[in-house]
Specification:
By secondary structure, the protein is an alpha/beta fold. The protein has a single domain, classed as Aldolase class I (TIM Barrel), CATH 3.20.20.70. The protein has 13 helices and nine strands. It has a nine-stranded mixed sheet. Helix 3 packs parallel to helix 4 and helix 4 crosses helix 6. The longest helix has 17 residues. The termini are close together.
Length: 365
């Protein structure tokens, strides 16, 4: 990272941390997240999106293209993260990725991997996808399949990894491939072996995030649920033996330092220890989604946080006006007092400037 870029990043980070307590932050969002559909054919224990069978009409292809164009006019090139539900259920997904790529935006797609065959993998690469993130919740088929509620999901994901590696082989620049796992008592003992395997399997990065209350993953068409103290006692995936989470997180820190493809920073992994010790305690850090993320739901609603109120409509309102609106200010105030554990999720967590610089240097090596 050159001196000019370090200075620019440092000034931006200082502005964001100062903006955390302001109603009208003097910064633009770092990333745009589009949850492109609520629909999904899995039956995950960690998510309730699949429980809804009737949803409002989703944004059309042209409406997504228009939204991306207006965001680009405001932000310039930005990072676009696409998730769901299962995004690959959208027949126009490749067109939407291509529209973002044509505007020089970096793109990430989160998928369960079931639909990533050779044709889809080739289509994703040709559309200009920057990174494919596949959700893998264990190193053994039975561990992963239990969390997904669909037999054979592990085998289909592994086939998806192979298909994507074939599709991206030899391309310059090649898109990257990541794995993301939800860490719980159910799978904690397998995660270090998964990381060791990933380095030999053509996977560029592995990230973990803590199991959180299913209230974080509700269909946007349903009324939002709020944090429920003691939720972990009702989740069959939570429990693990005493000290297990700390040992596994320490191992992941050691693996990262040894050069294995662990995406989480040591500080984030350390913070997870406290979270697993007391998931209902006040967060040990600050949630910065209100000054970092611009989220669009499948129906055009704009949000700063998954579980909080809509602050605008991307079809009717200018993105900048939404970002600096009174409705957004009210949500930011709510974020400052929120006690939910989702601030540690990878789409929400914001590392320190030192972490960002270390990651940049690590990437150069």
């Amino acid at each position: 990272m050159d001196a000019r870029r370090r200075l620019r990043n440092g000034l931006d980070e200082a502005a964001r941390r100062a903006a955390w307590r302001l109603d009208r932050p003097p910064v633009k969002p770092r990333q745009v997240i589009v949850d492109i559909t609520d629909r999904c054919f899995f039956r995950c224990i960690t998510c309730d999106k699949w429980r809804t069978h009737h949803t409002p009409p989703e944004l059309t292809t042209d409406e997504w293209r228009d939204a991306l164009a207006r965001l680009h006019a405001w932000l310039g090139s930005f990072h676009l993260s696409i998730s769901g539900g299962e995004p690959l259920l959208r027949k126009d997904l490749l067109d939407i990725i291509a529209a973002a790529s044509a505007r020089d935006c970096t793109t990430n797609l989160m998928s369960n991997g079931w639909l990533v065959d050779d044709a889809m993998a080739t289509g994703l690469v040709r559309a200009g996808l920057g990174n494919l993130t596949l959700s893998l919740n264990g190193f053994r088929p039975e561990t992963h399949d239990l969390t997904r509620g669909v037999a054979g999901s592990y085998a289909r994901l592994m086939a998806g990894i192979e298909a994507f590696n074939r599709a991206r082989g030899g391309r310059q620049p090649a898109p990257t491939l990541s794995l993301n796992g939800i860490l719980s008592g159910h799978n904690a003992g397998e995660i270090p072996d998964l990381v060791r395997w990933a380095r030999t399997a053509g996977v560029d990065a592995v990230a973990v995030q803590p199991l959180v209350d299913v209230a974080n993953y509700q269909p946007y068409s349903q009324p939002a649920r709020t944090f429920t103290a003691g939720w972990e006692g009702d989740n069959p995936l939570w429990g693990g033996e005493a000290g297990q989470f700390a040992r596994v997180l320490d191992t992941l820190i050691d693996l990262r330092r040894a050069g294995y493809p662990v995406l989480n920073t040591p500080r984030q992994l350390e913070l997870m220890k406290g979270y697993f010790d007391a998931p209902g305690a006040p967060p040990a850090g600050r949630c910065h989604v209100g000054v970092n993320n611009f989220l669009i739901d499948p129906y055009g609603g704009v949000r700063l946080c998954y579980t909080m109120d809509v602050v605008g409509d991307i079809r009717a309102d200018a993105p900048a006006a939404i970002w600096w609106s009174a409705a957004a200010a009210r949500v930011r105030a709510g974020i400052r007092s929120c006690r939910m554990g989702c601030w540690l999720l990878n789409c929400n967590y914001r590392g320190t400037l030192r972490e960002q610089a270390a990651d940049a240097l690590r990437g150069r090596r």
